[in-house]
Amino acid sequence: MKIAVTGASGFVGRSVAEKLIESGIEVIPVSRSNTDYSVESLVQILQGADKVIHLAAVRGGDGSMSDYHDNERITENLLNAMAEGDADRIIYASSRMVYSGEDAIPWKETDIPAPNSLYGVSKLEGENLCSYYSRKHGFGSTCVRIAQVMGTGEKVRNMMSVFLEKAARGEQLKVVGKSQAKRQYIYVKDLAEVICRLALDSSVAAGSAVQEVINAGMEQAYTNLEIAQAFSEVFGLPAPEYDDSKPETITPSIMDVSKMFERTGFKPRDMHAALEAIHQEINQEIQQEQVR
């Protein structure tokens, strides 16, 4: 079997490609190094692909929809290229950002999406494109709404990546804000496991035009302070500094992931176990550097 992976050189893409190769799957890497993501280019690259895992996306911008037009363009071109080839299924990386509203937490796949960011709007549009082209051309689509991803090698600056950098240097962490809102995460290697299990699911017949949406994340959710405390325990850091004099600037973000458990038979690691795996990765990298 051959599976094409867009964004194969990215944060999630590298882990997905590695997992597929470990499973004996031939990976067709798709990235800006070998395509301009035009339909013509993609048709050539997808030759021989049985399935497509679509991870490539623009994740940040200046706050206008034009910042995310590439997400829609690339997704539509990819789907049109699939229609000209043999691939019978697409696994599309969507986002928790298609949801909003604290009253509805935990968000379920059956909830009506209501993005509160333009990035979320662009990911939901990608889902709609997958649904439309799947119906039009008769191939299957699985849209995976992903919690915030954590792991080494993340280039986007956020609280988790800052915590990882500081923890790797043995520095005390600081949490500012009331720390009441809980958010859901997923370790990048666990996300790769989920995506690969969905892509290789033998219960979905080849050529089946099944369309589905699946939430992917840890079963648990955590406040920023709870995350900092877990870092301190795993990395042997001093207890985090906590300044609760300022209001919290984030809102809760929790999805119901029971469908993911049922479909894949896999439960991602909790925060403590994920950090232990990351700590081990960092230690291995340090040892490799010392050998060099």
Walkthrough of the structure:
With 292 residues, this protein is α/β, with parallel strands linked by helices. It has a domain at 2-147 and 187-217 and 255-268: Rossmann fold (3-Layer(aba) Sandwich). Helix content is 40%, strand content 17%. The protein contains nine helices and eleven strands. The chain has a six-stranded parallel sheet with strand order 2-1-3-4-5-9, sandwiched between helices. Strands 6-8-10 form a three-stranded mixed sheet. Strand 1 (2-6), helix 1 and strand 2 form a beta-alpha-beta unit.
SSE pattern, N- to C-terminal: EHEHEHEHEEHEEHEEHEHH
Give the rounded overall mean pLDDT: 93
Residues in helix, %: 25-40%
Shape, per Cα inertia axes: globular
First-residue to last-residue Cα separation: 37 Å
Main beta-sheet annotation: 6 strands, parallel
User: Strand share of the residues?
Assistant: 15-25%
Task: Note the total helix count.
Answer: 9
Rg calc: 19 Å
CATH class of one domain: Alpha Beta
* Biggest β-sheet: strands ordered side by side in the sheet: 2-1-3-4-5-9
Structural class designation: alpha/beta
CATH architecture of one domain: 3-Layer(aba) Sandwich
Uncertain parts: none
Find the count of extended strands (DSSP E, 2+ residues): 11
- CATH H-level superfamily of one domain: NAD(P)-binding Rossmann-like Domain
